[in-house]
Structure formats: structure tokens, C-alpha cells
Amino acid sequence: MDVTIKKCTPEDMRILQNISIETFNDTFKDQNSPENIKAYLAKAFNLIQLEKEMDNISSQFFFIYDNEELAGYLKLNMDDAQSEKMGDASLEIERIYIRYKFQGKGLGTYLLNKAAETAIENSKKMIWLGVWEKNEKAIAFYTKMGFVQMGAHSFYMGDEEQVDFVMTKTLAGSSSN
Hints:
The chain is α+β, with helices and mostly antiparallel strands. The chain has five helices and seven strands, in the order E-H-H-H-E-E-E-H-E-H-E-E.
């Protein structure tokens, strides 16, 4: 397996939009109404919204490739770009998605490691994410990777309010002792 992680640029916008729609739809379509999926995809992944997110200096997008084929992506937020007020010492993993055919190959671990590396480079002490309470596969993966549930927040899928668990991980070497 030849894995490459590349920071996204504005020239990648259409590719980012396509993989965002594909991976989100594949992950959540079976547990949500088609109307709510469609509404969310239109709101979250339209080009204007994605351009706004990419233009934010406190957000970064990365593509992951497996043998030069696009396999997934990662979106990180720091400082005021975080979707919850978690403090200046935190980095948020807002999106971590692997295309269906690449799941189970360890690519999520590469992306989590990239998030931790980015956090450490930016003097962050903790990484965190929100994960849907019904996404048991993802929760098990994050728990295995050292994340612990620290709370919950609302996430809106179209007109339906859902609960995301907030999971955090303190980074090695970042304790204050």
C-alpha cells in the first residue's frame, strides 16, 4: 500500500465537493431520509460553502491517496474555525471520510496521525471531533485510537436534530507536568 497525504488547494474544489458528497452520502444515506440527506448535501457541500471553508486560514483540507487513487479526505479546524468553543489549545477534526472501497485498509489511522501531527506543529494540546451517536463503527475506531467521549452536541441533518458525541484525545507530550 502506497499512501500519500496532500494538502488541498483551491484548484481541488470540484474534487473536494465530489468526494464530500460521495462519502457523506455513502456513510449516512441508509439511516436518514432522502430529503434530509439532500438538504444537508446542498447546504454543506455547495461550492460557495466549500470555498468559504477553504479560504479560512484556521481550516485545512487534506486528500489521502492509496496507490495514487483518491481514497478520502480530512478537514481540520483551529481557533475560531472550530465548530464548538473548545479553546485555543484544541484542534478539531471536523471531517474524516474514507471512500467505501478503501475502508478497512488503515487509512483513517493515517488521517488521525496527520491531525495529531498538525496539532503538535501548531502547539495544540488536544484533538477532538464530533461523531454521530448511531455511527458505532466510527465510535469504536475513535475509542481504539485513544479518544474518549467528553460530551455531546446537536447536529442538524436537514430538519432532524441528531446527537453527536464529542470525543477528545490529549496529545502525547502535551501534558502540563
